[in-house]
Amino acid sequence: MLSKVITIAQQKGGTGKTTLAVNLALSFIKFHNFKVAIIDTDPQGSLGKWYMIRNDKGYSNKNLTFKTASLWGAQYESKILKETNDVIIIDTPPKIESDARPAIEAADLVLIPLAPSHVDFWATEAIIEIAKKAKRKILTQINRANHRSKLIQDTYDYIKSINVLSTNTLLGHRQIFVSSMGEGRTVVEKQRKGKAIEEIKAITNKIISELN
Ligand SMILES: Nc1ncnc2c1ncn2[C@@H]1O[C@H](COP(=O)(O)OP(=O)(O)OP(=O)(O)O)[C@@H](O)[C@H]1O
Ligand SMILES: [Mg+2]
Q1: Alpha carbon nearest to ligand 1 atom 25, residue
Q2: How far apart are CA 57 and CA 167, in angstroms?
Q3: What is the pTM of this model?
Q4: Is there a smaller number of Cβ atoms within 10 Å at the N or the C end of the chain?
């Protein structure tokens, strides 16, 4: 049992925290045969809604556990879930700043999605500071990328300048991420092959190598 906690955090709303949470969870289950728990700490409850739709439609939740918790509660909850799961993924709300501390401290790895945009760079700083203070491993993930955007190099330069890790994989702006979520599914369940799956697989592998 790996028993590792990943907290997905980012001050800015809509950067893909919940999308990454569900796609990584199913990727860990499908490609690595892991037992995975997901914890929704966001009062918006997007992760919970996704899980409820899944349940109502009867999709398999084999090896997947869902919990809700406050940001404080996630620390306690993840400790318990570590006994029976390989990976625990904590999805957090936007605008958390100082409230984020317990969920960050609970983590072995803090995963920060950001779009290739200067606005996202600025919004990322508060979480990075908290995660650095807590001496947690920080992995950034560029999301909703247009591969031809000139801002991608700027984003890698920014990530390098703040001295945190990054995956080598861009997660593209793809409609399949939007539509699958609304159906209570993920790209790894919807498609057998394709760019979106390859991206999620590569990010999953990078996370596993950082956790080991
Ligand atoms: N790679 C992507 N390609 C296309 N759309 C995406 C991608 N990632 C996320 N989205 C879409 O962007 C919107 C925001 O994503 P998501 O809810 O995952 O962000 P979030 O960071 O969890 O937001 P919040 O801060 O409100 O919790 C959703 O409509 C989602 O489907
Ligand atoms: Mg969310």
Answers
A1: 13
A2: 34
A3: 0.97
A4: C
Residues 6+ apart with CB under 8 A from 60: none
pLDDT tens sequence for the chain (212 residues)? 999 999 999 999 999 999 999 999 999 999 999 999 999 999 999 999 999 999 999 999 999 999 999 999 999 999 999 999 999 999 999 988 778 899 999 999 999 999 999 999 999 999 999 999 999 999 999 999 998 888 999 999 999 999 999 999 999 999 999 999 999 999 999 999 999 999 999 999 999 999 99
Domains with residue ranges and CATH for the chain:
4-211 (3.40.50.300)
Query: Which ligand approaches the C-alpha of residue 180 most closely?
Result: 1
To test the pocket of ligand 1, the residue of 8, 11, 19, 177 to mutate (highest count of ligand atoms within 8 Å of its CB) is 19
Q: Which ligand is nearest to the CA of 203?
A: 1
Cβ contact 111:207 at 8 Å? yes
> If you measure from the C-alpha of residue 22 to the centroid of ligand 1, how many angstroms do you get, rounded to a whole number?
11
Residue with tokens 């955090």: 9
Residue 34 CA to ligand 2 centre (angstroms): 23
Rounded Cα gap, residues 3 and 9, in angstroms = 19
